[in-house]
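In the laboratory, one determines a bound structure by crystallizing the protein with its ligand and collecting diffraction data. In a computational setting the workflow is compressed into a single prediction: the sequence and the ligand go in, and a structural description comes out. We illustrate the idea with iron/sulfur cluster.
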Amino acid sequence: MSAPKPAGTAVDEVHILWTSEGMSCDGDTVSMTNATLPSIEDVMLGLVPGLPKVYLHNKVLSPEVGDEFMAPFHQAARDELGTFILVVEGSIPNEKINGDGYWTSMGNHPETGEPITVNEWIDRLAPRAWAVLAAGTCATYGGIHAMAGNPTGCMGLADYLGWDFRSAGGLPIVNVPGCPIQPDNFMETLTWLLYQAAGLAPTIPLDDLLRPTWLFGKTVHEGCDRAGYYEQGDFAYDYNSPKCQVKIGCWGPVVNCNVTKRGWMDGVGGCPNVGGICIACTMPGFPDKFMPFMDQPPGGTLSSALTTGYGALVRRLREVTNRTANKEPKWHHNRAELTSGYQPRWPRR
Ligand code: SF4
Ligand code: SF4
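The predicted complex, in C-alpha cell form:
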C-alpha cells in the first residue's frame, strides 16, 4: 500500500472507489456494464494500450462483501491506498437535517460499529482523490431524489462540495449526467481521466456545468433521426408515428445530450430515434423543469407553429422535386434511335 502520488506525477496504477450509496437506484453501475468504447472488462484486463493498471471497487460488481469490500475505502481515507479516482453515484442527502437518524450510509465505523454516512465518506475521500467523477444525473445535479417536495434536502456533488472544488490531482469535479448515464459516455470520460493520470492526455475539457465538452456540446435535436420531419413541419400526434415528437412532449431541441448521435448500447437506440420522447434527463433542472413529461414543451408550441407553415411549403416543393428525381432520363429506351444527345466528333461513313 502507498500514499497517493502528487498532482502532475504520471501513475501506473489507479484504484476506482465507486460509491452508489447516495440516493440512487444503482442504475448507472448497471448501465456502465453495457459500455463497449471501451468496456469496463477491457479496462480492467489491461487491454487498452497505455492505461494504468486499474482496480475497481464497486459493490454491485465486486466479488468481495462486508469488511473485505470496505477495506480499500478505509485505506484510502488513511492515505494508504495509492492513487484513486472517486466515483459517486446517487444524490447527496443533507445530513444537517436528518433529525435523530441518518439518510444513507456505507459500512460502519470499526471502533463504534455506527454507520458511516455517505457524506462522511465524501468528506474523507474527495480531497484525497486524484479525480472525482459524478456518475449520473442524481450525483451531478440531484436528479429525481432532489425534486421539489423531497424530504432529504438532497443535492448534486458540486452543490455539496462546492463548484470550485479541486481534487488532489487539481481537477474540478467531472460530471457525466444521464438517467442513467449513457454507458460509453461514462467509460470514455473515465478513460480520458486514466490517460491523463498516466501522463498521456491533456486536461479533460469541461463546460461550466463540469460536463465533458465533446459529449454534451450538442443538442438531442441536432442528432435526431426525426429532425428532417421537424424541419418540414411534419409532426407525430401519437406514439406510433415515425415523425417528429415535439408536439407529444419531446424536449430534444433544447437538451444537451448525444444519445441520438451515439445510440445507447453499442450504437443502437437513443431515445427519440427509437420512439421515446426526450424528457431531458441529463439536464440540471431535471425533472421539475420538464414536467409534465408528455405535454408539448412551451417553447415547442411557438417553434413548431412557425415550422408548420414554412415546413408545409418546403415539403410540397420537395414532393414535386422528389417525383422528378424518381424518374429515369427519357433517353433510356430500346427504340431504334439514339436520343441521348450524343454528338460524334467525326461524321459516320
Ligand atoms: S423527436 Fe425531438 S429531438 Fe427529434 S426532431 Fe423531433 S423535437 Fe427534435
Ligand atoms: S435523449 Fe433526452 S431522455 Fe434520452 S438520454 Fe438524452 S436527455 Fe435523457
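The beta strands are 13-19, 53-58, 84-89, 105-108, 115-117, 131-135, 174-176. Keep in mind that any predicted model is a hypothesis to be tested, not a measurement.
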